[in-house]
Amino acid sequence: MCELFGMSARYPATVNLSLDAFSHHGSRRGLNKDGWGIALYRGLDVQLVKEPAPAEGSDCVRFIESHAMPSPIVIAHIRHATAGAISYANTHPFTRELGGRMHTFAHNGEVEALDAKVDPRLDGARFRPIGATDSERLFCELLARLEPLWLALEPPTLRARRDVIEVFAAEARERGIVNFLYADGDALFVHSHFRLHPEDSSAKAPGLHLLTRTCAACDAGFEHPGIAIHPGAEGMVEQVVTLVASAPLSDEPWRPLEVGELLVLRSGSPC
Fold it and tell me: What is the mean pLDDT of each run of 10 residues along the chain (271 residues)?
C-alpha cells in the first residue's frame, strides 16, 4: 500500500529526518518500490521532486536530506502501483495551477472512475489527467469542483474551500478507499479513510496518523527523531509543526485519525 506524509508549519521547516525515516517504507525489498515524490511549497509555487523508482538508496533523496529545503507545507508519497504503469507521469504528488498558485495532491487507496456523464463539471473540464492513475483523476475531479470558487474570488474563504472538499471526500468514499493530502499554498487538507493491508487484503482504520510538535525560538533550531526544524524568520516566538503519515514515523504518541475525518491545517495548527 502507498505511504503518505504531510507537514504544515508556522514557519518554514526542514523535513530531512522525516524523509529519511519515510524513505525506508519505499525499500526495494518492500511493496512500495514503484516511485516516490515530494512537493515543498515556496510561496505560491511548488518545488517538486519525484522518481518512478524506490526511495531507499535514491541519490535525489540523499540530496534532499543533505540540503536544507525549508518549507511551510510539504506533501510526500511513496508508491505501490495498482493503477497505471511505473512512470514519472503516474508518480505522486500531482500538481496543477489554479487561481495563480500551485495546487498539490497525493492519494492512498483505490477509487472507481467517475463517468463525466454523472458529473457535468467533468465534461470538457480544464483539468485532465496526464497519467493513468485513479489518483490523478481524483485530483482533477477535486479541482473541477474548486475551480468556480477560485475564479470568483482569489483566494476563496477557507470555509468555502472546506465545504467543497468535505462533500467531495464523502462522495469519493462511496467509490473506494480515499486517504489524501491536498494543499493550495495556504492550507493543507488531510482526509483519512481506511488503509489496505496487502498481507490479508483487508481495509482497516486508521488510514492516517497525526503528530504536533512545538519549539521555542532559538538560533540553532532544534532536532527530534523524525524532523529537523529550521530556525525560521527573525522574531519567531514559537515554532509549531504538525505531521501527518500513513504509519507513525517515530515512537511518539501519534493520533490515529477517524474514518472520514477531514482536517484543515494552516501554519501548523488545525483551523
Answer: 88 76 62 83 96 86 83 90 82 96 95 64 78 94 96 90 98 95 98 78 87 69 60 66 90 94 96 91
And the C-alpha cell for 55?
526511495
Q: What tens digit of pLDDT does each residue of 82-122 get? A: 777 889 999 999 999 999 999 999 999 889 876 554 565 66
CA angle 255, 104, 209 (to 5 degrees): 10
Q: Model's pTM, two decimal places? A: 0.90
Nearest to 34 by CA among 71, 69, 86: 86
Output the CA torsion sign for 208, 209, 214, 219. Answer: negative
User: Collapsing DSSP states into helix, strand and coil, what is residue 165?
Assistant: helix
Parse the chain into domains and list their residue ranges.
Answer: 3-270
3-state SS class at 257: coil
pLDDT tens-place string over residues 222-247: 565 556 666 555 556 688 899 999 98
Type of residue at 265: L
**CA distance linking residue 238 with residue 169, whole number of Å:** 33
**Side chain identity at residue 219, one-letter code:** D
Nearest in space to 50 (alpha carbons), one of 37, 69, 32, 61: 37
* Structural contact between residues 37 and 49, judged by C-beta atoms closer than 8 angstroms: yes
CATH number of 3-270: 3.60.20.10
Report the percent of the chain where pLDDT is more than 90: 55
From the list 149, 177, 170, 185, the residue with the least C-alpha distance to 75 is 185
Beta-strand relationship, 188-191 and 262-266: antiparallel
Q: DSSP letters of 178-243?
A: -EEEEE-SS-EEEE---EEETTTTEEES-S-EEEEEEEE--TT-EEETTEEE---STT--EEEEEE
